[in-house]
């Protein structure tokens, strides 16, 4: 039985709050992208793992977080430039819609405030507080967080994840990202399937296969005019490979990657293909939590430090 996992880095403004230059089109369309992503998944009854920045579960705060061990300027944009941008700082109504959805989405963690766990100045104390606060605010919603997605895919402090009660995380594969890699992978017809593994901390690493928005700009427009959207072709190939085997295809994206109707169309074409193959084969759609449960029940071999060594590429 093959399976597909879709994991989603749900951030709104928090994915960019530490940057000097903001990608305005993504920031200002972040809510539209979130709502579009959720609508498409629910339309086809495809569950996903929504890794949500914990601060978005709040309804209000003073913007200071004085007892958080991050540097004093970490929340500076929230206090000042975004003091009147509740739409970027909070999202309880978006989370509530996910929780109330008839589709069984997993609510996972993307840390509390998008701290980069792999950064040299992120101490174990900071990582621990990010995990603790994310868990605490989720508990106020009656939610238990099992899966973790590292901000900007910077894997680090795995011991802290285990200590604070997480059991699954999204790791990286050795497949490089970017347009040239997408075209080369399509040309070589290589496998896009990944293997879950248990690391030395007892955590299940569910590696990513493909980033849904890895072929953009002028090259994307040219490819669509001459042929098709390469990301749709690549995702369909991975879905087909999973449907025809016992392997796992893991697609990931940010809702704020959806900034135009064409972006929403890309995601819908992929999700539609998942639904089609699910109806004509034994293909299953799983969440990261479900893959983790399956890996532990199958006595998956322990592979120490495999993902930390491969976490060298950052994708905003």
From TrEMBL:
<dbReference type="GO" id="GO:0016810">
    <property type="term" value="F:hydrolase activity, acting on carbon-nitrogen (but not peptide) bonds"/>
</dbReference>
<dbReference type="GO" id="GO:0005975">
    <property type="term" value="P:carbohydrate metabolic process"/>
</dbReference>
<dbReference type="InterPro" id="IPR002509">
    <property type="entry name" value="NODB_dom"/>
</dbReference>
<dbReference type="InterPro" id="IPR011330">
    <property type="entry name" value="Glyco_hydro/deAcase_b/a-brl"/>
</dbReference>
<protein>
    <submittedName>
        <fullName>Polysaccharide deacetylase</fullName>
    </submittedName>
</protein>
<dbReference type="Pfam" id="PF01522">
    <property type="entry name" value="Polysacc_deac_1"/>
</dbReference>
<feature type="region of interest" description="Disordered">
    <location>
        <begin position="278"/>
        <end position="316"/>
    </location>
</feature>
<feature type="domain" description="NodB homology">
    <location>
        <begin position="36"/>
        <end position="151"/>
    </location>
</feature>
């Amino acid at each position: 039985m093959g399976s597909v996992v879709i994991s989603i880095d749900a951030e709104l403004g928090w994915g960019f709050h530490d940057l000097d230059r903001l990608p305005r089109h993504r920031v200002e369309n972040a809510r539209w992208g979130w709502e579009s992503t959720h609508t498409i998944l629910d339309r086809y009854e495809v569950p996903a793992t929504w890794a949500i920045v914990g601060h978005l579960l709040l309804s209000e705060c003073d913007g200071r977080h004085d007892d958080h061990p991050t540097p004093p300027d970490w929340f500076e944009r929230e206090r000042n430039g975004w003091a009147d941008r509740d739409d970027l700082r909070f999202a309880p109504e978006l989370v509530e819609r996910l929780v109330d959805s008839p589709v069984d989405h997993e609510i996972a963690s993307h840390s509390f405030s998008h701290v980069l766990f792999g950064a040299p100045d992120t101490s174990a104390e900071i990582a621990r507080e990010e995990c603790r606060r994310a868990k605490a605010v989720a508990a106020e919603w009656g939610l238990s967080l099992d899966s973790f997605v590292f901000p900007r895919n910077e894997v680090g402090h795995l011991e802290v994840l285990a200590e604070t009660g997480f059991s699954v995380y999204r790791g990286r594969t050795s497949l490089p990202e970017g347009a040239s890699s997408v075209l080369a992978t399509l040309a070589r017809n290589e496998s896009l399937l990944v293997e879950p593994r248990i690391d030395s901390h007892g955590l299940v690493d569910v590696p990513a296969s493909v980033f849904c928005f890895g072929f953009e700009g002028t090259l994307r427009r040219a490819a669509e005019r001459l042929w098709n959207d390469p990301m749709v072709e690549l995702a369909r190939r991975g879905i087909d490979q999973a449907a025809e085997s016992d392997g796992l295809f893991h697609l990931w994206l940010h809702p704020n990657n959806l900034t135009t109707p064409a972006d929403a169309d890309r995601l819908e074409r992929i999700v539609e293909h998942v639904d089609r193959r699910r109806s004509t084969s034994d293909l299953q759609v799983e969440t990261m939590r479900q893959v983790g449960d399956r890996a532990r029940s199958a006595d998956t071999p322990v592979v120490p430090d495999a993902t930390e060594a491969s976490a060298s590429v950052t994708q905003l």
